[in-house]
């Protein structure tokens, strides 16, 4: 059983925005272990991520000088023959491993050119990270996103997210690099995203995760729940910005100006169902114990260190997210 019951949501610290409400998550018992996130390890040149020798789109080769490298689902890898996203969270040992990925840049494929990936510091969108899509569905989702921002020649998810979320300087660099047009739709989406980013609280002391309530499409639909948490505040502080950005992006491209309301009974029922759900062992990618929860109403994924029940990382959402 995954101990979701150890997680605490502090409702009085909730923040509500158009299309999105965020509640900080804490833990009754934090668990510390010597971990490093994939993005930090790449930046410190402790890990190299590169194309497979056979140029396989669905996998990448990771060579690490460190043990316990945490690869979080939805990590956006920039470079190589085309940008990718990690599709399953895992823990990698020292040495060479393979990780499962999907393409998030449909219009570029040159595996014999640039072999290595230069950055892994950002996340893809909350919809993509919490959902379960095949490659064609992922491309269709990115195409839909571009219709709400701007279209790039390489159909780059990183391009549309940068233009929506990043500073003016980084946005200008992206526009120049990808030679895209910024129109009224682009500006409106960006304005909504930047307005949320400017008002959102920074990570709080002791925080280990986030509980989000957002509309999945029309605001006439019931708002949906998403949860993401890690084993301790140190690890969450490294992830907080990119996870929150992934949620802000989906709120910005939604058509909702309504702020989701917290229904305490429904939130409690969601957490209770996660705790009592039938978590099943998942095939390991690295040295982790992986767990999955797939029910008619819920979907969840968690990774733990071997023989330790506290998740290093957990994601869960309502199944129709």
Please outline the helices and strands.
Elements: E1 7-9, E2 15-17, E3 20-27, E4 36-37, H1 38-43, E5 47-51, E6 59-64, E7 69-71, E8 75-79, E9 84-86, E10 90-92, E11 95-103, E12 117-123, H2 126-130, H3 135-147, H4 157-165, H5 168-178, H6 184-199, E13 209-214, E14 224-230, H7 233-253, H8 264-276, E15 280-282, E16 289-294, E17 298-304, E18 313-318
Parallel strand pairs: 4-7
Antiparallel strand pairs: 1-3, 2-3, 3-13, 5-6, 6-11, 7-10, 8-9, 8-12, 9-11, 13-14, 14-18, 15-16, 16-17, 17-18
Helix pairs in contact: 4-5, 6-7
- Residue-averaged pLDDT: 90
Briefly note the structural class of the backbone.
alpha+beta
Tell me the overall shape. Answer: globular
Unreliable spans: none
- Quaternary organisation of the protein chains: single chain
- End-to-end Cα distance, whole Å, is 23 Å
| Strand composition percent | 25-35%
Order of helices and strands: EEEEHEEEEEEEEHHHHHEEHHEEEE
Domains, number:
1
Annotation, overall tally of beta strands: 18
Computed CA radius of gyration, to the nearest angstrom: 19 Å
Largest sheet descriptor: 9 strands, antiparallel
InterPro entries: ARPP-1
Protein name: ARG and Rhodanese-Phosphatase-superfamily-associated domain-containing protein
Pfam families: ARPP-1
Domain ARG and Rhodanese-Phosphatase-superfamily-associated: 11-306
What does this protein look like?
With about 325 residues, the protein is α+β, with helices and mostly antiparallel strands. The chain has one domain. The chain is built from eight helices and 18 strands. Strands 1, 2, 3, 13, 14, 15, 16, 17 and 18 form a nine-stranded antiparallel sheet that branches. Strands 5-6-11-9-8-12 form a six-stranded antiparallel sheet. A three-stranded mixed sheet has the order 4-7-10. The two termini are about 25 Å apart.
């Amino acid at each position: 059983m995954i101990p979701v019951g150890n997680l605490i949501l502090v409702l009085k610290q909730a923040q509500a925005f158009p299309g999105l409400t965020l509640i900080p998550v804490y833990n009754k018992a934090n668990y510390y272990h010597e971990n490093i996130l994939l993005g930090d390890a790449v930046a410190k040149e402790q890990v190299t991520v590169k194309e497979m020798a056979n140029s396989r789109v669905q996998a990448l080769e990771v060579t690490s000088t460190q043990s316990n490298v945490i690869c979080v689902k939805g990590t956006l890898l920039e470079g190589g023959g085309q940008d990718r996203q990690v599709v399953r969270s895992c823990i990698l040992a020292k040495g060479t491993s393979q990780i499962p990925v999907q393409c998030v840049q449909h219009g570029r494929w040159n595996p014999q050119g640039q072999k290595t990936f230069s950055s892994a510091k950002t996340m893809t969108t909350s919809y993509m990270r919490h959902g379960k899509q095949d490659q064609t569905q992922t491309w269709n989702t990115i195409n839909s996103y571009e219709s709400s921002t701007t279209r790039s020649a390489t159909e780059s998810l990183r391009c549309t997210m940068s233009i929506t979320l990043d500073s003016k300087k980084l946005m200008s660099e992206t526009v120049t690099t990808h030679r895209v047009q910024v129109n009224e739709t682009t500006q409106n989406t960006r304005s909504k995203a930047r307005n949320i980013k400017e008002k959102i609280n920074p990570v709080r002391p002791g925080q280990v995760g986030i509980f989000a309530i957002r509309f999945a499409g029309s605001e006439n639909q019931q708002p949906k729940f998403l949860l993401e948490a890690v084993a301790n505040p140190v690890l969450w502080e490294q992830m907080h910005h990119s996870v929150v950005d992934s949620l802000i992006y989906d709120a910005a491209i939604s058509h909702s100006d309504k702020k989701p309301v917290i229904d305490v009974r429904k939130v409690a029922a969601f957490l209770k169902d996660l705790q009592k759900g039938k978590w099943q062992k998942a095939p390991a990618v690295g040295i982790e114990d992986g767990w999955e929860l797939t029910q008619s109403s819920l979907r969840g994924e968690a990774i733990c260190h071997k023989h330790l029940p506290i998740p290093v990382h957990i994601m869960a959402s309502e199944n129709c997210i």
